[in-house]
Amino acid sequence: MSTDDKNRAIAAAILPLVGGAGNISSVAHCMTRLRLGLRDRSLVQDEALKAVPAVMGVVEDDTYQIVLGPGTVARVTPEFEALIAEAPAPAHSADDLAAQGAAIKAAQKAKNSTPFKLFLRRIANIFVPLIPALIGCGIIAGLNGLLVNLGWLPGITPALAAIASGFMALIAVFVGFNTAKEFGGTPILGGAVASIIVFAGVAKIEVFGQTLSPGQGGVLGALGAAVLAVYVEKWCRRWVPESLDVLVTPTLTVLISGLVTIFGLMFVAGEISQGIGDFATWLLAHAGAGAGFLLGGLFLPLVMLGLHQALIPIHTTLIEQQGFTVLLPILAMAGAGQVGAAMAVYRKLPRNGSIRRTIKSALPAGFLGVGEPLIYGVSLPLGRPFITACVGGAFGGGFVGLFNMLGDQVGSTAIGPSGWALFPLLDGNKGLGETIAIYAGGLLVGYVVGFLATYFFGFSKELIEEFDVDTEETPSPAEPATAPAPAGAGAAASTEGPAPEPAKV
CA–CA separation, 410 vs 100, rounded Å? Predict the structure, then answer.
């Protein structure tokens, strides 16, 4: 079977299990998930869907999200959309079905959403689309640094430096564009106001006794400037006559927001950005082991609560200031603890073929930093192994943090990947070999501690009796590829929001 046929077969297997083409109101995808808007949630066959071999898990939030993994989801989504386009129109009333689905969706969003989570989701929506460029430019920057250190291809390295640095030099513009779009304004006006921050001419302007510098305030300043532009634009739309709107509204939006940005936001955001960088450096220099232990141990729960999204602007700010973020390699240790815990579950449940198959299929993605299949398919439903996975992440984070405290900064030039996928993006204040060795050592500690903690403390006698059973005795095509969750665990999993896109673990 060709690759195209395989992807179409996956799409064809999923479509009837989510209620058919008539039940789909929207289709999108992120780095690992197919995100579907559903008209009637009750038509989805969850258990049969989880049993599809290509499906690693499902997550329910404001959209129904099917975890397919990186690469696969980008190829399956167009096939899925094509099948929907080819399907005949449903015979039932679309209005009735839409109303029913809207009511179910509203009830689910009210149950799972809080104002703070919604705000963080907006922040994520601003920065997540930038991650592919951050990754690509980060890898090129790492390759260029290696060539410069080796003295190879001196005629090519300046070009690589320009390619790697161009996006970061203008990232504020992209942040402003996405921010205005997310908050309901005109995207290009948000980008126009944010572009003031990176304009070289601001170096001629003095504010609060200090001369501004291009880029001062960075992504935080761009975010604030674009939000302000949205509010100014909306105010203008209410009060400016329609006959003058096309001329007056964009002019006032750029003028008012631009003046506030130059004479206020750039300075304030610059101080905040500098404070973030100084605090991160001070924290890891003076309490690196303890800070790394806490960050590595708490990251998986933060992911489950959706609170990790608050870290995205911090990562981006550190990359702007220092060229790399020292937080991501520490947080990536949570994924190592998860992998170690999954391997221990594999050993502790030798008779449960269902869970063991899930682990075998999900471990390669786990090593590459995509932890969702292991989280939702293994550790979280079992309960205690999720906690012991956090213990593994804590010790791995403490290991990397200890070396930061000793003066060996280990950072990443981009956000998004973790696990082994982070190796091409590593950078630091010492040699590349030393940086790679410290990060690899942290992963090893996370694997080992996650395995040992789960093997010796992750299972009660009752849990083993419940799950170490032969799942092949009563096979059913509708059964999922994961064991049923113990009482309470499934409920906890179903009420949480999605795991993060930038920072997979």
Answer: 51
> What residue has token string 């059964």?
479
CA torsion angle 15 16 21 22 (round to 10): -150
pLDDT in tens, 299-355: 988 887 767 878 889 999 999 888 899 999 999 999 999 999 999 999 999 988 888
Other C-beta atoms lying within 10 Å of the C-beta of residue 376:
24
Can you read off the two tokens belonging to residue 350? Answer: 């030798």
CA–CA separation, 329 and 452 (whole Å): 22
Return the ∠ at Cα 267 (arms to 264 and 269), rounded to 5°. 100
| pLDDT tens digits for range 69-103 | 777 888 899 899 999 888 765 444 334 434 544 45
d(CA 397, CA 44): 39
Residue 238 CA, distance from chain mean position: 36
Nearest to 394 by CA among 290, 287, 294, 307: 294
**What's the chain's average pLDDT?**
84
288 burial type by CB count under 10 A (0-12 exposed, 13-18 middle, 19+ buried): buried
Q: Helix, strand, coil % (nearest 5) of the chain?
A: 70, 5, 25
Please, what is the angle between helix 333-348 and helix 266-305, to 10°?
0
Q: Is 30 a catalytic residue?
A: yes
309 neighbors 61 (Cβ within 8 angstroms): no
Among the options 30, 137, 236, 390, which is catalytic? 30
Cβ neighbours around 220 below 10 Å, total: 24
- Contact predicate 423/436, CB 8 Å: yes
